[in-house]
């Protein structure tokens, strides 16, 4: 299976949310990494066929998804950032309702609802009202509804936002488990969500695709840009103003700074092994990470 994004641009008024995105995606998990406002959600909506690009095209195995219309949507499972749930419905009843909207027969609905509830770990809670579920359980209901039609392309937008660490681990393990023989696109600004499960990472910034590489390749690209420096307390603010400081650790009367810099920030600075947190900070300044719906 091959999903091709060909010079996709999306404009909202004078704002270009996406700028000629061009890439190819095949079977596996792809992490879309970017600060809020980078264009992640806009790209996901276009790939989910709920929004059309202002220009450019998306092709599935060489066929334009706009012309494919419902034949493409039948292959899609979509979990938006904010999924609407009927709070008075039980998990089982809600999923049965969504299954009917997707055109599943009664027999298919019964089988698939039981199957996806088991898959997301909610089988024993199937009779409970969704409104009483925790945030993590609601997100699992969301992924269950996206899987009802056994999609070949699964699109999930910020699936772990607001979840505690335990639920985040559970969720990304679930995505890894269900990624066999399908394309999974995971949009996030939480780097640990994709560190161990992504086949490749797409880095979006200001609506542009600036990197598409494996996590290992991305980290290799900044391996000489992560430094550790030990300084006195009075020097900390100076280094914070001059460099991107990802971590500060107190060691008796000194402070160890983890710094992102293209050049050696201090004569006694030593290189450190980079991680994806470093990668995120290297590409995105703190001021980039502002609330935005693009």
UniProtKB/TrEMBL annotation:
Residues 3-231 form the ABC transporter domain. InterPro entries: AAA+_ATPase, ABC_transporter-like_ATP-bd, ABC_transporter-like_CS, P-loop_NTPase. PANTHER family: ABC TRANSPORTER, ATP-BINDING PROTEIN (PTHR43335:SF2). Belongs to the ABC transporter superfamily. Keywords: ATP-binding, Nucleotide-binding, Transport. One of its GO terms (molecular function) is ATP binding. It comes from Fredinandcohnia quinoae. Signal peptide: none annotated. Pfam families: ABC_tran (PF00005). This is ABC transporter ATP-binding protein.
